[in-house]
Design brief:
Helices cover about 30% and strands about 20% of the residues. It is α/β, with parallel strands linked by helices. It has 2 domains: about 210 residues, DHBP synthase (Alpha-Beta Complex), CATH 3.90.870.10; about 80 residues, 3-Layer(aba) Sandwich (Rossmann fold), CATH 3.40.50.11030. Bound molecules: threonylcarbamoyladenylate (TXA) and magnesium ion (MG).
Length: about 325
């Protein structure tokens, strides 16, 4: 039985005892485990049905505790003061004496670290006093959860508890930035826009595609991801009565069901409602989901990245 709990101290004690506890962050709900405990971390992969051991992000209450596990350089320190706590994840060289289990980092010599801003997450991390590994709290390849009810739908019976933390404010995952090389590389667009990062450390590169000979730097960035059960069609300019519409601004007419991301075309509001919308329309019983165009800039690339993945051809 998975319990919904309100007490951060109870959730912290469960984590320290090696149990799996989902908790809210400002981006999406995470499925947490003691990052030092390989068995607990293996439980994350099992509960999510993750086919590969993708590296996980380690969560900390503050930058100082993150720096105990990785080597920050000047760029990392500047970004941490600008954006932590908040939706930015930094990939940095792991310290030789890091307590984090190798499985957490999938055996890589780097580690992804982040300090979330959600008050419930901060309290949990402070009380737990350990690095907490946490991917999004959904079944592998499915839509990320932004409410405790979503987490229960995904993982009930597979984890010890969910710490209630209300709705997630940002709604898309953190930006993942690789600082392990001389060039900063954006591995995943997310809650902190690329422009904001560049204002602090200068130009940021994109990962070389595997076809172009670049190593696959973020193993978790598989194309088909965030997939609802229904097929997803992007850049819709017309919609059929047997389709559900994910609207951005004035909705196209004639859809069988409509979920409005943001009537005012506000990208922040749209990001916060994105996964909720995909989930709601997935339950519409219609033929597919048509998505209206979403512009670039700010959180636009993060939203479009998630939509591209939702629309990508499925593995199975
Ligand atoms: O907003 C978020 O980041 C949420 C909340 C719960 O914090 N977490 C999340 O975790 O989205 P997950 O596991 O769904 O995504 C982590 C991403 C994956 O694409 C993974 O491959 C990448 O970060 N990653 C983690 N460690 C890495 C490393 N050492 N090197 C390169 N990429 C890494
Ligand atoms: Mg995920």
């Amino acid at each position: 039985m998975t319990r919904l709990i309100e007490d951060a101290a109870e959730a912290a004690a469960l984590l320290r005892a090696g149990e799996l506890v989902a908790f809210a962050t400002e981006t999406v709900y995470g499925l947490g485990a003691d990052a030092r405990n390989g068995k607990a971390v293996a439980g994350i992969f099992e509960a999510k049905g993750r086919p590969h051991f993708n590296p996980l992000i380690c969560h900390f209450p503050d930058a100082e505790s993150a720096w105990a596990e990785v080597h920050p350089d000047e760029r990392a320190r500047a970004l941490a003061s600008a954006f932590w706590p908040g939706p930015l994840t930094l990939v940095l060289p792991r310290r030789a004496d890091s307590r984090v289990d190798l499985l957490t980092g999938a055996g890589l010599d780097t580690l992804a670290v982040r300090v979330p801003s959600h008050p419930a997450a901060r309290e949990l991390l402070r009380l737990a006093g350990i690095p907490v590994a946490a991917p999004s709290a959904n079944q592998s390849g499915r839509v990320s959860p932004t409410t405790s009810a979503h987490v229960m739908e995904e993982l009930s019976g597979r984890i010890a508890a969910v710490l209630e933390g209300g709705d997630c404010e940002v709604g898309v995952e953190s930006t993942v930035l690789d600082l392990s090389g001389t060039e900063a590389v954006l591995l995943r667009p997310g809650g902190v826009p690329q422009e904001a990062i560049e204002a602090v450390i200068g130009p940021v590169g994109r990962p070389a595609s595997p076809e172009a000979g670049g190593a696959l730097r973020s193993p978790g960035m598989m194309l088909s991801h965030y997939a609802p059960a229904l097929p997803v069609r992007l850049e819709a300019t017309v919609v059929a009565p047997d389709e559900a519409l994910l609207a951005f601004g004035a909705p196209l007419e004639g859809a069988g069901a409509v979920f409005q991301l943001s009537a005012a075309q506000d990208l922040r509001e749209a990001a916060a409602r994105l996964f909720q919308g995909l989930r709601a329309l997935d339950g519409s019983g219609l033929r597919g989901i048509a998505v209206m165009p979403v512009p670039g800039g700010g959180l636009g690339p993060a939203i479009r990245d998630r939509l591209d993945r939702a629309a990508a051809p499925r593995d199975a």
